[in-house]
From TrEMBL:
The chain holds residues 177 to 446 of 643 of the full protein. Homohexamer. ATP binds at residues 57-64. This is ATP-dependent zinc metalloprotease FtsH. Residues 49-189 form the AAA+ ATPase domain. In the C-terminal section; belongs to the peptidase M41 family. In the N-terminal section; belongs to the AAA ATPase family. It is found in: Cell membrane; Membrane. It comes from the Bacteria. Acts as a processive, ATP-dependent zinc metallopeptidase for both cytoplasmic and membrane proteins. Plays a role in the quality control of integral membrane proteins. It comes from Flavobacterium luteum.
Length: 270
């Protein structure tokens, strides 16, 4: 079967309420919601709506979640794909796929395009690595730049892209009229971890009075994705032990398990 290049979602239910913490990032990205909902308010005064913003931060911190929440808040379609798909799955056709993607988004505008792992296509050009395949990647990147320059100031398609390696990106991507805004999405602090726990505890059947301050304290360095994992793992551990509600010990066991996983991952990396 033919792999799909991008995913298109409408009627998104994710909103800023689903994104715990990240107050600064939410505040900055709120403006993009306003642009999508009420573009004339800005263009009537001669302003140009930005075409793109870069979400920068470590893995699992909620960049995808935040981008989706923008689409949910503005009630616009969400076109998403991963940069690595471009270069891995569509050898020889990356550029034309980019063209298709923008064409479809424009037809359904206002809309959001979300490109995860933009660094896979957006690494600086001209520093060829020995592995080859660079021409393909560069063609894809060039087409992306062309598309962003090409859509008129009122096309009302906003491109959000995520990376944890902003330093390797081709500077051309950051030029005015492209991804000229950067929004930082950092690992959560203790207060934010508590909020993230509250979001992911909500759907669980749990004992009363679980201390989320305690859980936040037990999880330094955890990302939002890690915390979501802890909550799910805790529920599975409780079920395995035939409990009818998830309790504190299940969370502690789940934290241990995730810490073990993180340590293993780090060993492979270094
Ligand atoms: P990556 O760089 O690995 O693609 P990301 O920054 O895009 O990661 P997400 O995919 O948005 O991270 O996060 C994964 C999951 O972790 C989310 O679907 C959500 O369940 C949870 N999560 C992450 N951050 C938050 C947050 N701030 N609030 C609530 N849940 C979060």
């Amino acid at each position: 079967s033919k792999a799909k290049l991008f995913d298109e979602k409408t009627d998104i239910k994710t909103t800023f309420k689903d994104v715990a913490g990240l107050e600064g990032a939410k505040e900055e990205i709120q403006e993009i919601v306003e642009f999508l909902k009420n573009p004339e308010k800005y263009t009537n005064l001669g302003g140009k709506i930005p075409k793109g913003a870069l979400l920068v931060g470590p893995p699992g911190t909620g960049k995808t979640l935040l981008a989706k929440a923008v689409a949910g808040e503005a009630q616009v379609p969400f076109f998403s794909l991963s940069g690595s798909d471009f270069v891995e799955m569509f050898v020889g056709v990356g550029a034309s796929r980019v063209r298709d993607l923008f064409k479809q988004a424009k037809e359904k505008s206002p809309a959001i395009i979300f490109i995860d792992e933009i660094d896979a296509v957006g690494r600086a050009r001209g520093k060829s690595n020995m592995s080859g395949g660079n021409d393909e990647r560069e063609n894809t990147l060039n087409q992306l730049l062309t598309e962003m320059d090409g859509f008129g100031t009122n096309s009302n398609v906003i491109v959000l892209a995520a990376t944890n390696r902003a330093d390797v990106l081709d500077k051309a991507l950051m030029r005015a009229g492209r991804f000229d805004r950067q929004i930082f999405v950092d690992l959560p602090d203790i207060r934010e971890r508590k909020e993230i726990f509250e979001v992911h505890l909500a759907p669980l059947k749990k004992v009363e009075g679980l201390d989320t301050d305690f859980l936040a304290k037990q999880t330094p360095g955890f990302s939002g994705a890690d915390i979501a994992n802890v909550c799910n793992e805790a529920a599975l551990i409780a079920a395995r032990n035939n409990k009818t509600a998830v309790d504190k010990q299940d969370f502690l066991d789940a934290v241990d398990r995730i810490v073990g996983g993180l340590e293993k991952k780090n060993k492979i990396v270094t």
